[in-house]
Design brief:
Elements: H1 3-18, H2 27-30, E1 37-41, E2 45-51, E3 61-66, E4 69-76, E5 93-100, E6 111-115, E7 118-124
Antiparallel strand pairs: 1-2, 2-7, 3-4, 4-5, 6-7
Length: 144
């Protein structure tokens, strides 16, 4: 019997009783999101470190950046050592995760590298000419 199936049924019943999407804020606690990430920011840069064990084919992951959003799609598949699972804490499977970034980033300056089970994604703040301060001229209207 699949424990996540039972949890999903229970969650639907609670949503029905308490209101739509009651458990949404608890979802990460009940079933943690994969892949887990750490995000670090400086004035003009973001570094996202994504935990992705066993990734040997870079075509199994898609990374999309759109303005102030990072999207990760793919699959984490670790080789089974054989036998019955006694303890399983490293989450695996198909994922589709969207992360809000603290500021808009440039689409032309993105670097992603993978080393020792970690994906490093470096992003740079979008500084637009249109975001500069402009003086607003005030026009006086003659009395009506």
């Amino acid at each position: 019997m699949d424990p996540f199936k039972q949890m999903s049924d229970w969650k639907k019943n609670m949503d029905h009783f308490f209101g739509d999407k009651f458990w949404t804020e608890f979802e990460g606690t009940i079933k943690p999101t994969i892949p887990p990430i750490n995000m670090y920011k400086s004035d003009n840069e973001l570094t996202c470190i994504v935990n992705m064990p066993g990734l040997d084919d870079m075509h199994k992951i898609d990374i999309y950046v759109d303005y102030a959003t990072l999207e990760l799609k793919g699959s984490i598949d670790m080789e089974n050592a054989g036998g019955t699972v006694v303890q399983e804490e490293i989450l695996q499977g198909v994922f589709d995760r969207t992360i809000s970034l603290p500021f808009p980033v440039r689409s032309d300056k993105i670097k992603a590298t993978y080393k020792s089970g970690l994906m490093y994604i470096q992003l740079h703040r979008l500084i637009s000419d249109t975001s500069r301060k402009h003086r607003v001229n005030v026009h006086v209207l003659e009395g009506e």
